[in-house]
Amino acid sequence: MMPSSLILFIPLSTILLAFVRCEDQQSQLSQSTSLLVDQLDSEKLFRTYDQLRDTVGDFDDVAVELFEHHDHDELTQLLTNYSRQYPNITHLYSIGQSIQGRELWVLIISDNPREHELGEPEFKYVGNMHGNEVVGREALIYLIDILCKNYGKNEYISRMVNETRIHIMPSMNPDGYSAAREGDKSGVKGRNNVEDVDLNRNFPARFPSHRRKSSGKTVQLETAAVMRWLQQYPFVLSANLHGGTTLVNYPYDDSPDSARRREPTPDHALFVKLAYSYARAHSRMWKPGARCLRPELNYERDPQLGIINGAEWYPVAGGMQDWNYVHTNCFEVTVEMNCVKFPFARELGFLWNEHKYSMLAYIEEVHKGVKGVIVDKETQKGIANASISVGRGAKIISSAEGGDYWRLLNPGVYQITVGHPHYESQTATVNVTKDAVVELNFALNQTTSTDSFKSEFGALIDQSTTTDASPTTASSIAVIASTLVSRLIASHV
Ligand SMILES: [Zn+2]
């Protein structure tokens, strides 16, 4: 913040001009986001609440008795019950304990819940990272409920469970939750963990000097558990559920100079598509204008659209979504579920109805783009840690243990280059369409020297560190083993 003595020397006209410029810039940024949304919308990439309701069809929805708040013991009991009642499609595990010793539970829902199936993407939802923002926590319980109850009965849900490994963590901050109180509209009691650290500021930051006091001095147990978790599973897509307003924000959360302005990732259009897929399927999140149903909860500087770049909204250093994007293969967005952080239980049914199709539609996004398996041409064994690059300077991802990979992409034509220090690189051109994931497999030839990898891939790795979206210059070598366009999870409108 600027010292007040300095402000006295700045002419009023300069201040006014700066203010006007700032407002102009804000409207331009908003406009460009809405233009991009319009463009993606014209490609029919988004579905509305009503369209999703038709696509999903009839299903056994959450029973009214469940629309209650559940403390840690009740949550533990509920998750245990689901895992016992639906043992074929669930697997309950803990990624560690909070500082006060509460388990950080995750329930997997999938047709083969105890193992990673080659080619099947792993998805995650994380709720209640801020302990007093509780709607995500409860909504995740309701999501578990409908996925379990309707498996084998509703076609849409059955396909989703069969084709996706869905990890659901209702609470990342159970200690904070235990201090939070029902009825808290916009408070902070219970937001942080028991060491008073804001877990969404506690991850290693892109710009460490931007960390604030609330980031804490050390990586907290809850944060470390999540970081380990991301090394254990090849997550592809994720959402982190918060509360305080109604929108979706996406990386980056921080800019090099910590300024409040748009800081797009090289995958900006993809993040806009992912975020708006959630917002558009919500009953009102997508609508321009004030974010809250209760006018007293609207802030003047709140975004007026249902989605926003994190740094454009307000810069955050050490947030979880940036860490996911920079350090893992997982693309994560942050959903602000509603304006009241800890609403009274009587509001939960209404809130679930607003969000249920968004939560399903967002999971489907894990099945869009390109996926495949990278194998050794001679042995046909999968190659782990191969690098997969998209020819637009975008993020480079790596293959999982079995050689399988997933690269989320918007529709378009891309050059996919695969490389590994012990293999010759390959490049293929692929046409990604709207609803289907394109399967693209690679069989790589071993090389005796690492020179070819260095020459082919060194340039790509350099490119990936910039935000320049220029086409890759890596030469195309061979073509792929097979390309086949396959199914998506639902038959869309
Ligand atoms: Zn939050």
Walk me through this protein's architecture.
The protein is α/β, with parallel strands linked by helices. The protein has two domains: 49-367, Zn peptidases (Aminopeptidase, 3-Layer(aba) Sandwich); 370-485, Carboxypeptidase-like, regulatory domain (Immunoglobulin-like). 32% of the residues lie in helices and 20% in strands. It is built from 13 helices and 16 strands. It has helices spanning 4-7, 12-42, 49-56, 72-85, 135-150, 155-163, 174-179, 221-232, 268-281, 310-313, 320-327, 348-364, 451-464, and strands spanning 90-97, 103-109, 122-127, 165-169, 235-242, 247-250, 307-309, 331-336, 369-376, 387-390, 397-398, 404-408, 412-420, 423-432, 437-444, 482-485. The strands form three sheets. The chain has an eight-stranded mixed beta sheet, with helices on both faces. A four-stranded mixed beta sheet has the order 12-9-15-16, with no helix packed on it. A hairpin with a 5-residue loop joins strand 1 (90-97) and strand 2. Helix 2 packs across helix 9 (268-281), helix 4 runs parallel beside helix 5 (135-150) and helix 9 (268-281) runs antiparallel to helix 12. The longest helix has 31 residues, at 12-42. The chain is globular.
